[in-house]
Amino acid sequence: MINFKKEIAKQISKNVDISAEQIETYIEVPKDSSKGDYAFPCFRLAKELKKSPQIIAQEIEQKLQIDQKVMEKAEVVGAYINFYINKQTLAKEIIDGFQTEEIADEDGESDALGTEEKVSPSPEGDTFSSVPKASLSPSTKIEQNIVIDYSAPNIAKPFHIGHLRSTVIGQALYNIYKYLGYNVTGVNHLGDYGTQFGKMIEGYKMWGDEYDIENDPINELTKIYVRINNLCKEDENVLQACRDNFKKLEDGDEYCTKIWNKFKELSLKEFQRVYDLLGVTFDSYNGEAFYSDKMDEVVELLEKAGVLKDSQGAKVVEMEDKNMPPLIVIKSNGSTTYATRDLAAILYRARTYDFTKDLYVVSYEQTLHFKELFEVAKYLGLDEKYLKGLEHVPFGMVQLKSGKMSTREGNVIKLEDLLNEAISRAKNIIEQKNPDLENKEEVAQKVGIGAIVFNDLANSRIKDEIFDWDEILNFQGETGPYIQYTYVRTKSVVEKAGGVPAVDSINSEYLIDEYSTNILKLIYNFEDVLVQVTDKNEPSILSRYLIDLAKAYSSFYNENKIINDDKDIQNARVYLTFMVGTVLKTGAQLLGIQMPDKM
Ligand code: ARG
Q1: Would the pLDDT of 127 be above 80?
Q2: pLDDT tens digits for 577-587?
Q3: Pocket mutation for ligand 1, best pick of 160, 189, 372 (most atoms within 8 Å of C-beta)
Q4: pTM for the full model?
Q5: What is the 3-state secondary structure of 326-369?
Q6: Where do the domains of the chain lie, and which CATH numbers do they carry?
Q7: How far is the CA of 360 from the centre of ligand 1 (A)?
Q8: pLDDT beyond 60 at 107
Q9: Which of 183, 349, 401, 566 has its CA 20 to 30 A from that of 360?
């Protein structure tokens, strides 16, 4: 496909003494497309060439040799040269490049992002279950390993709304890196370690049979924990027994390990229900406990580096910035910390995965933890490239429209309840709008979950997320359901036209109106958008893009008669519709949103 930006850069660089690569980084895309499709601002050249940017713009423009097939025209406005691409070439390039390419999955069946995709439209009507992957095919493999640490709930504790963001953002990043061809490892760094398990084991020993932990593990374990905690406050002997349990657990005692395993297994079973609803998967569940026998090495390495200091009985590493508290590696009671396990995990991941990036999708509340962690990691003797790859990907809080949604202490909203409520609210809306719809349950699930996931990814992740039921389920708003609705519309347009027209029947001349061009420019940018997502680890760039594309299609739909007496016009517009549907579906799936066929 023609790279318009590169073409422009090449032409400009012929006339100034700056490389095309450098020029390319200066080229902008004007917000208002009446100012051209690309613009080259000449400010930066002014100093070097010792002329005013306006003069430079004129001089460059006069010498430009524009290939009319690529660029319709170039115009100087002030210090800018604005470029207008040849719309028909754009249309033709995209249509020709929109090759259907299917990927074979492990079972050898063709599959795009886990859904069944066939290329040829079946006469029976279900044209779009056949949306192919099209030119949106992932680029060639990229020989880089990306580790993404996300979700990471704490076992025997509720999987609450605070973990939602990590799970959803992490999975979206996972999908997008993978789609671009990276080798990605998703790690669920479970919180399955700590002195509280010594307490829970003691509580379970005392009253285990009073609680139905098989059926409602997390609620029941929480009750046991509260009860034993209270008892510990009253009875020093019980507290000691709890401490002993934890020590035994660390030493691999059979009974303690067995019970702890049971807590873990039951918790994971409960988490799994949430993961299934969200379509979330991991390659590794190596949580904190996995590192219990890997921390001695961390202590040795830090000692060898001479940075481990004694401080009131604890062993700590001081930060370069003395305003930051020291990082505690061994507490005064001899036990290790969350940070020690994270240091062990960095060593392990560097050796096991040889990562280029090791991303931690964790709330902004842990910013200090990761800052200190990455600083101390310098003393582990790792290659510089690993240190460079460590990155905290923080995100803001979830807030109910009326105040904070979950606090550490009280009113914890369970994620599973939230998801189920979204599904039932979606079901109610469907009942009202389209009572005769088939598979209402399935559609309600896709719409409800899609609404929550999209809301979570709609704005830059660092912003607090506002949670408002009416807003996230509004089919006309900037929401997941709006994208699904637009997709369903593209599908029904194609069906009405009798299927996807053959590519060679499309005349790109019919796709040069303003509305078609807007869409084509967006489709042209799809891969670039994904690259931007991975540059910034910011899935909202894709969310915004999908909203823009859905809106551009709505305008196109309102302004252009698609089903048309002129079959050539119809074919071109239907094909454009098909491409929009394909991009919407692919993009939504990357975010973790499933598309219904009808809604
Ligand atoms: N379990 C932790 C929590 O709920 C999150 C762990 C994040 N990952 C990490 N490697 N520290 O706060």
Answers
A1: no
A2: 999 999 999 99
A3: 189
A4: 0.91
A5: CEEEECCCCCECHHHHHHHHHHHHHHHHCCCEEEEECCHHHHHH
A6: 4-85 (3.30.1360.70), 166-399 (3.40.50.620), 415-591 (1.10.730.10)
A7: 9
A8: no
A9: 401
